[in-house]
Automatic annotation (TrEMBL):
The keyword Transmembrane helix does not apply. One of its GO terms (molecular function) is ligase activity. This is Phenylacetate--CoA ligase family protein. The lineage of its organism: Bacteria, Bacillati, Bacillota, Bacilli, Bacillales. Keywords: Ligase. Residues 336-420 form the AMP-dependent ligase C-terminal domain. Residues 77-285 form the AMP-dependent synthetase/ligase domain.
Length: 423
């Protein structure tokens, strides 16, 4: 059990642990879960090494969504009868129809344990007061963190249905020591604090755990948040359908995958073959302890660097240097160059004078173009444009817009507007 480990990521026999858990899961799921019984019907279990996992078929989100459409409302990817299920979540639906995901008591407890690992890696203890700036709707967001903080014995304060100002007041009044939110929202709270003459460095918040967007592992974004709050930022990554699978450590040089509970592969999204060490590819994950909602070789759509680097922090779990580089679905090709919005954001956040931004793709004279809109009190458009041209390799128009006209987000920020002719 993850819950019994006091030191995250210290394993002497990780591959044995993984193989044992993988086989237990595969044997059970291939017999009791209709979705996987059909998918794996020609394969005999147990397998002999975790490498043999590569012989099994991939699972995609499109497949899960299609299954739910055909077998409404919950599809066939459940291993137990409905009466065993206690928690329901759905994906945010940013890239299509939301996916419904249910957990049994055991599966949900497994989520909590995965989140406990995130807290331990960040040094959060039962002495802490954890404030969750999250709306607590059907999206999974910080629900797992809420349960894990409770399990840890920390005091948990929920910030659902509150304005940003109310959230600030609540976390100050209650002496919160840890803030959980998206990187965008941590920055937004900084803006609100400034408007209200609040110095966040004087609050009790000394740790911030971000999730929901890749920003927490981007140095320029992390530095900005840490400076505004006078706190240390830790990043976390998870998915509704997969689980809470990764977290940053004291070295802040990427994300570790919790390999006791997940097996990771990095594949070329076109050939679906493993990429070489040092190359970028799509992260493919298998969860080992979520029997109620198992996913085997799930194509996450997250682009990462395949690395064999060992981390100086001592955690031996696989490291994803620089965290999630971008989403496969978010990548666009403009004039022959692969563009991830996250790489533009990394540059934008180096300028602390920029409070909000938006990326617009459009077509002019038959050519695809990019424009960046920024909110700032100082006209730094030409210097930002120079940085973008030098580092992205493309001329991007930068336009300064009026303060507070661009939308703000507390979960799953959507800062890209695609107005290209073909879309
Ligand atoms: Zn580390």
């Amino acid at each position: 059990m993850v819950a019994s480990q006091q030191q995250p990521g210290l394993h002497t026999n990780l591959s044995d642990t993984q193989l044992l858990k993988l086989n237990q899961m595969l044997v059970f799921v291939s017999q009791n879960n209709e979705f996987y019984r059909e998918k794996l019907n020609n394969i005999s279990f147990p397998i002999h090494s975790t490498k043999d996992l590569q012989e099994l078929p991939f699972t995609t989100k499109a497949e899960l969504v299609e299954d739910q459409k055909n077998f409404a409302p919950h599809g066939k990817n459940h291993t137990f009868t409905k009466s065993e299920y206690v928690r329901y979540h759905q994906t945010s639906g940013t890239t299509g129809r939301p996916l419904k995901v249910m957990d049994t008591k055991e599966s949900w407890s497994w989520w909590e344990d995965c989140w406990l690992e995130v807290f331990r890696s960040s040094g959060v203890t039962k002495e802490d007061t954890v404030y969750l700036a999250f709306s607590f709707g059907p999206f999974i967001g910080f629900w797992g963190a809420f349960e894990a903080a409770k399990k840890l014995g920390a005091l948990v304060i929920t910030g659902g249905s509150q304005t940003s100002k109310e959230r600030l007041n609540s976390l100050i009044d209650n002496d919160a020591t840890v803030l959980l939110g998206t990187p965008s929202y941590a920055l937004h709270l900084g803006e609100v604090a400034k408007q209200n003459n609040i110095d966040l460095r004087e609050t009790g918040v000394k740790k911030i755990i971000t999730a929901g967007e890749p920003g927490g592992s981007v140095p320029s974004i992390r530095n900005q948040i840490e400076t505004i709050w006078g706190a240390t930022l830790f990043d976390h990554v998870g998915m509704t359908e997969m689980g809470a699978y990764g977290y940053s450590c004291s070295e802040h040089n990427g994300l570790h995958i919790n390999e006791s509970e997940f097996i990771a592969e990095v594949v070329n999204p076109d050939t679906l073959k493993s990429v070489e060490i040092g190359e970028r590819g799509e992260l493919v994950l298998t969860n080992l302890g979520r029997y109620g909602y198992p996913l085997i070789r799930y194509r996450t759509g997250d682009i990462v660097i395949h690395s064999s680097e060992s981390c100086p922090c001592g955690n031996t779990y696989k490291l994803l240097p620089k965290g999630i580089i971008g989403r496969k679905d978010d990548m666009v090709v403009i004039r022959g160059i692969n563009i991830y919005p996250s790489s533009i954001e990394a540059i934008v956040r180096e300028f602390s004078a920029i409070t909000e931004y938006r990326i617009i793709y459009y077509t002019k004279g038959g050519m695809d173009q990019i424009k960046l809109q920024i909110e700032t009190n100082v006209d730094i458009s030409s210097i930002v444009a120079t940085h973008l041209r030098d580092r992205v390799g493309l001329r991007i128009d930068v336009e300064v817009v009026e303060t507070n006209i661009l939308p703000r987000f507390d979960m799953k920020a959507r800062r890209v507007l695609d107005k290209r002719d073909a879309f």
